[in-house]
Automatic annotation (TrEMBL):
Signal peptide residues on this chain, from the entry's feature table: none
Protein name: NAD-dependent dehydratase
SUPFAM superfamilies noted in UniProt: NAD(P)-binding Rossmann-fold domains
Organism: Hydrococcus rivularis NIES-593
Span of domain NAD-dependent epimerase/dehydratase: 3-71, 148-235
Length: 341
């Protein structure tokens, strides 16, 4: 099968391209950089900017991909250009989306108050407010004010002439993670801190994760399986650990001698209290993907975490991560709290 991947050289993309190639498919990567990722030499490259997608329509027509996988559709305009460009050229478009489409996301961010039941299913209520990062002074990654996966999904799934598939990703971890999700915990453990203090609601909070190689496998299955036409799928590990359980699991894997402790909010300083509503769990059900496409993790969860930890310890972040929680590295305040308990 001939597959065109838009993007494909950042965090998740290379793992997807390698997986598609290993499955025996002919893969072409379209992006602004050429030969920048660790990809098989047999992978083809088409250099160009997705903002000028229609200018490359003659090249796409000559390539005649059977499937187009867009790893980076962020805005309504990008999705509309995607469908307009490939209508009549390809048989199906697969678009990568996110768990942030759900109303539960706005509850987590304290934009809505009604707690949504979890695990979230593919038909769970979506956010009522669009553009989740508009006006935010510090945005994650390359997100813009116009970022909106809900609108991307609507356009990809509503085209009568070009079928679509949507894959909603969890929090993805592993080699190359630009958010360095476990760094604050690992740094503390490496520095032999005796405790990690968490507010009780944070300690109880459960969220869905996926290891990059397993997520790539799921994307490859949905891209190449005709049963995925007109379907939306979640990718996530089968068990969603609480934050306290996750810290303890990481601690076991690095032989940390300390302990993670949950404290009442009343015992913590005001500056440690974030703006999130951790009563809203962030868990999705991935059974549709498993049942319909036969998905299962190709790297066991414990091994996934081990590999992610090894990469993170050898690749500390060079700048503050968007998701870094500053108080986790506030040792002086933590020592004072422990002395008062």
């Amino acid at each position: 099968m001939k597959i065109l991947v838009i993007g494909g050289t950042n965090f998740i993309g290379p793992a997807v391209v390698r997986r598609l190639y290993a499955m025996g498919h002919e893969v072409t990567v379209f992006n602004r950089r050429q030969n920048q990722a660790d990809l098989p030499v047999q992978v083809n490259y088409l250099k160009g900017d997705r903002n000028n997608l229609q200018e490359f329509k003659p090249e796409f027509e000559r390539l005649a991909p059977q499937i187009v996988l867009d790893m980076i559709p962020f805005t309504e305009g990008e999705a509309q250009t995607l469908m307009n460009t490939f209508r009549g050229i390809t048989q199906r478009v697969v678009a990568i989306s996110s768990m942030d489409v759900y109303r539960a996301y706005d509850v987590l961010w304290n934009r809505e108050s009604e707690i949504m039941p979890t695990p979230l299913m593919e038909d769970s209520p979506l956010r009522q407010q669009l553009y989740p990062y508009r006006g935010m002074p510090e945005k994650p990654l390359d997100f813009t004010d116009d970022y909106e996966k809900i609108l991307v999904e609507r356009i990809v799934m509503a085209d009568r002439d070009l079928p679509g598939t949507v894959i909603r990703l969890p929090m993805v971890y592993g080699a190359g993670d630009p958010r360095h999700r476990f760094y604050a915990y690992l740094k503390r453990m490496e520095e032999n801190r005796p405790v990690i203090l968490l507010e009780e609601s944070v300690a109880r909070w459960r969220s869905s994760y996926g290891y990059v190689e397993n997520v790539a496998h799921a994307i490859a299955l949905a891209t190449t399986n005709h049963r995925a036409i007109a379907q939306i799928y979640h990718v996530a590990e089968p068990e969603a650990l609480s934050e306290l359980e996750r810290i303890r699991k990481i601690g076991e894997l690095v032989s940390w001698k300390g302990v993670a402790i949950a404290l009442s909010k009343d015992l913590l300083p005001k500056e440690w209290k974030g703006g999130f509503n951790f009563a809203q769990h962030w868990v999705v059900d991935s059974s549709r993907l498993r049942q319909e496409l036969g998905y299962e993790e190709i790297v066991p969860v414990d091994k996934s975490l081990q590999q992610a930890i090894a990469w993170q310890l050898s690749h500390p972040p060079t700048e503050r991560s968007f998701w870094e929680v500053p108080y986790l590295l506030d040792y002086a305040t933590e020592d004072k709290l422990m002395s008062e308990l």
